[in-house]
């Protein structure tokens, strides 16, 4: 069995968040079959935020629509409000308050193991509080507005639940520093953006804008459109001026 590890050789640690217990159990089975440690399971956005701050997983795999705080709201809290834990020694942890479930029967840092003898402390991780959380959204909805917001927030990917086979490769890609988006969602968004071209922009600028909305960086865009990276940067600057926007994140949200 291939062991999924992080850059420093430790076992990949994933936190799951979904209000459907059948889904979280299925995901846990799939991940542990690939020797990925599932360190906790949350059933809503509040639990996801609390458990993330307590357990500091490598990746948070989270549903978008959940009762109470949604997955996008939880992502906004972690990515913009800070992912560090406020818990102090001897106090009640956020995970205890939220009622989330830490693997191993505890939300307070029990060691997680899949029975192979390979375990990971729920409090130890290659994910550090000074690096942005790696959040991978999992949903049944092909919604371009959700995708645009996920991109703007800095989420690492957006996958459809129907495509379970893509989850393990996507986790590997996210750990390697890449963004991942379900092909069906990308095709849907690309179709929409072909219709929503902005008349203030040139044809080439609209092409660049479409790819920015899909999360591509300047190097990817340059390769896809057979341009130099400098030319892509010039197009981005021109679009920002024409549309009165500040940065490429606003360009993605604009679309």
Give keywords.
255 residues, alpha/beta, Rossmann fold, 2 domains, seven-stranded mixed β-sheet, two-stranded antiparallel sheet
How would you portray this structure in words?
The protein has 255 residues and is of the alpha/beta class. It has two domains: 13-182, Rossmann fold; 196-254, Arc Repressor Mutant, subunit A (Orthogonal Bundle), CATH 1.10.10. 44% of the residues lie in helices and 13% in strands. The protein is built from eleven helices and nine strands. The strands form two sheets. Strands 4-2-1-3-7-8-9 form a seven-stranded mixed sheet, with helices on both faces. Strands 5-6 form a two-stranded antiparallel sheet. Helix 2 (45-55) packs parallel to helix 3. It is elongated and about 50 Å long. The N and C termini lie far apart (43 Å). Residues 85-129 have low confidence and may be disordered.
Estimated structural class = alpha/beta
Determine Rg (CA atoms, Å).
19 Å
Instruction: Give helix % range.
Output: 40-55%
Total number of beta strands = 9
User: Which range does the strand content fall in?
Assistant: 5-15%
Report how far the terminal alpha carbons are from each other. Answer: 43 Å
CATH topology of the largest domain: Rossmann fold
Low-confidence stretches: 85-129
Continuous helix count: 11
């Amino acid at each position: 069995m291939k062991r999924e590890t992080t850059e420093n050789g430790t076992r990949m640690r994933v936190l799951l968040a979904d209000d459907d217990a059948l889904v979280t159990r299925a995901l846990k089975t799939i991940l542990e079959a690939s020797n990925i440690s599932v360190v906790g399971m949350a059933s809503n956005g509040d639990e996801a935020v609390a458990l993330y701050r307590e357990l500091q997983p490598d990746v948070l795999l989270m549903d978008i629509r959940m009762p109470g705080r949604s997955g996008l709201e939880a992502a906004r809290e972690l990515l913009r409000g800070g992912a560090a834990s406020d818990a102090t020694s001897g106090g009640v942890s956020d995970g205890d308050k939220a009622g989330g479930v830490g693997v191993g029967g505890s939300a307070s840092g029990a060691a997680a193991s899949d029975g192979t003898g390979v375990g990971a402390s729920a409090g130890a991780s290659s994910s550090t509080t000074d690096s942005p959380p790696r959040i991978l959204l999992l949903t049944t909805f092909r919604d371009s507005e959700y995708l645009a917001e996920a991109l703007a927030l800095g989420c690492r990917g957006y996958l459809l639940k129907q495509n379970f086979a893509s989850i393990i490769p996507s986790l590997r890609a996210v750990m390697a520093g890449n963004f991942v988006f379900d092909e069906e969602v990308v095709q849907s968004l690309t179709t929409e953006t072909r219709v929503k071209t902005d008349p203030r922009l040139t044809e080439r600028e609209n092409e660049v804008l479409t790819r920015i909305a899909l999360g591509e960086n300047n190097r990817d865009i340059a390769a896809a459109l057979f341009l130099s990276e400098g030319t892509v940067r010039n197009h981005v600057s021109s679009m920002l001026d024409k549309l009165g926007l500040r940065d490429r994140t606003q360009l993605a949200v604009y679309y």
